[in-house]
Amino acid sequence: MKPLAQPTPDTREWFALIDEGRLTVPRCRECRAFFLYPRSSCPRCGHRAIELVDAAGTGTLLSFVINHRGPEGFVPPYALAIVELAEGPHLMGTLRAPDLEAVEVGTSVRVAFEQRGDRRVVCFDMERAA
Ligand SMILES: [Zn+2]
């Protein structure tokens, strides 16, 4: 099976919501900054009041690589992407697209989830052209 992240005390709630099919983005209650990865204090102002806000579920492809060989569980070719979420923070995940060779930086993507055992992992789907 593909690997799974091991939650830490600071990321446990965030991963538990992903397992329920909800992507959230941590936001500072003091300065309102969104950030990722989840942590116990704001990377901008240091405040420790953090809330998890449901993500819009959309983003823009910032960078990607197409892997033609992969570790156990991954069927090549597959794309690994860095996405700028609508809220601003960046998140890495697998990119699912009908034609990987047609993928371009700047394309709109939508958050999706891949089931791995009893857990879920965030991935991204290419937005269909209107
Ligand atoms: Zn802050």
Automatic annotation (TrEMBL):
Residues 53-114 form the ChsH2 C-terminal OB-fold domain. SUPFAM superfamilies: Nucleic acid-binding proteins. Pfam families: OB_ChsH2_C, zf-ChsH2. Residues 18-50 form the ChsH2 rubredoxin-like zinc ribbon domain. It comes from the Bacteria. InterPro entries: ChsH2_C, ChsH2_Znr, NA-bd_OB-fold, Thioester_dehydratase-like. This is Zn-ribbon domain-containing OB-fold protein. It comes from Microbacterium koreense.
